[in-house]
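[Meeting: bench + compute handoff]

Bench side (C.D.) handed over the final construct sequence. Compute side (W.E.) agreed to return the predicted structure before the next meeting so the bench team could plan truncations. Sequence as handed over:
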Amino acid sequence: MSKVPVPDRLRRLNAEALPKGLADALRLAHLVAFRRSLEFGTAARRLGNRLAAAGRGLVRRSVRSRGASSPADSHPRAGAAPQAPPRRFPRFGAKNLAIAGLGGALAVLLLLGYQAFNLPLPEDFAGDPRGLSLLLKTAEGETFASRGRFEGDSLTIDQLPADLINAVVAIEDRRFYDHGGVDLRGLLRAAWTNVRAGEIRQGGSTITQQLAKLIFLSPERTFERKIQELMLALWLERRLDKGEILALYLNKVYFGAGAYGVDAAAQRYFGKAADALSLAEAAMLAGLVKAPSQLAPTRDLESAQRRAGLVLEAMLDAGFIDGTRYREARNAPAELAVLPEAPAGAGYFANWVEREARDLLGGLSGDVTVRTSLNPALQRLAESVVARRLEAEGETRKVGQAALVAMTPDGAVLAMVGGRDYAASQFNRATQALRQPGSAFKLFVYLAALESGMSPRPRIDDAPITVEGWSPRNYDGRFYGQVTLEEAFARSLNTAAVRVSESAGRREVVETARRLGLSSRLEATPSLALGTSEVSLLELTGAYATLPNRGFAVRPQGILEIRESSGRALYRRQQGGGTPVVAQHDARAIDGMLQATVEWGTGKAARFDWPAAGKTGTSQDSRDAWFIGYTANLVVGVWTGNDDAAPMNGVTGGALPAQIWRDFASRAYSEGILSPPTTRKRIAAPAEPRSWSEPAPRKTKRRRSGVERFFKRLEKSIESLFD
């Protein structure tokens, strides 16, 4: 083995001032710690082998020295039965015991030296650099979720309320002021309780030990980590006084719901500063330390209140409060000043807003408050409508998932459902999934045609067509001959749409879709008109919002403003303005075609008490079904399908998606969540178009009678008097 270099700090040891054995032991301990190539496990194993060998040698020498028999005993009398030699036990002298004790002490020194050398001691207690934490609020300012580490302000012991300090000491470490970092009595009591219970019921960690874990150590449960925890607790007690330890602990400990530190928890749960906490609120916060994720009052208020009751009992038993204050706090338990934890569906919205906020703020760190456009009542309504429809028809129609996005005409997202069950899957089908929109893409085809000079009234052939070897067909397999653009759009005739696309130009169709907000990849193939390029529900709904927004571009957003904890505004959404991307007369024309779709076309299942406009969409083999529609003050997009793109059982955009749309929009108005839109004139349905193969019916002119002619002339005469 190569010679181990001796560091300078070992040369400074005064061997003459120490007993030779202890000085040698210290040198050996430091060398083992200094030379990390000598793994502790290998060194300990070698030491154990040597001690075992020495013990066996001592036993053999003791047996040999005392096992020699006298001559008389070595020759038993004739006829006597042979007797077993008496069992002898080795006797260790003082010298042997000293050797064994020295070996044990050396092993302990090796262990402690190794652990001391590897203690993660920092220069200060600043901890990890803070990231960005978000406190999400509704449009009305009610907190509904948080993302990241919300830490709040760091408080001194003088800024912490006495009730909170006493509550934490009473429930977590009642002998905190009496021990030096490690409570041997508490350790023995916890060990005895756990042995009797046959499982871990109590922990013997003091507040100082918990602080050591929070600042320095990983959460893994190993013997090595426990040794380091004990050593760090002793070190902390020598560096800090009890008040500093308590303040540091309460500023670092996790209280659930993303809140780290008592100031963040007070703001998160009660909407107030820590120094304004009542006794009941302080008891609730102290009770959360044991299991913050499970006991968080935003998740389970009753469990948090029961735990607070145990804390109050501990405070009464420890003498921190009297019976009067105990009864007052028990009779008036703490209540939340914020919304409960975001319902499952709102998690999709919260995750989307978090990504939007981080993009806006870049590398900024610290605690910020994000006021969003979320409408909690509409969010609950969206979740219930989607869940009810899927529960009723999902199995029979082979529909596994659905998504819904609701926004204002200027793009402020009011509600979002990204899937059937947020707890089972956080994948957001409203923002992340890219699926074929089918005929819902025809909005851009017909808008491009209108912009090229066509009008809704001229007729176009709905007849077989072949483009580059591809021949589309209509959903019902029929052809309708000469139809107007409005009829072709409202009845979602595929062959007519392809003719319109080829006439307007595929590149123009793609450019129109881009202007209205589609950012996904669009392939300018003949099938472009039938929605074969994949898009997300959010971007498609935002594109439709351009029309009720008077032709101005719309970018869906969920953030109204962002503020620092100090109140300084970092971002504020601009209202109004924008760039017009659709001319007013073209917007009115396509709006009329969308209204016709709902009134008498493929989207009539979405019709309800208020005028609406929209478009259905169904991809090949019913793998995706869509309905995107709007009223004067609400834009809603709905998608149904399966995550594995399996075909549904005959579901089209005019069926389940249109029904979900109608249920949501009608209840939003009837239940008073939104003000009803202004009344618009409904569009009458044209005569049922004939099949392409059927001859046009012959028109006959009925001759008016003389009485009819008389009254007709009289009517015209009366009208002329008022001209």
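W.E. noted at the follow-up: Residues 270 and 336 are 6 Å apart (CA to CA). C.D. will use this when planning the next construct.
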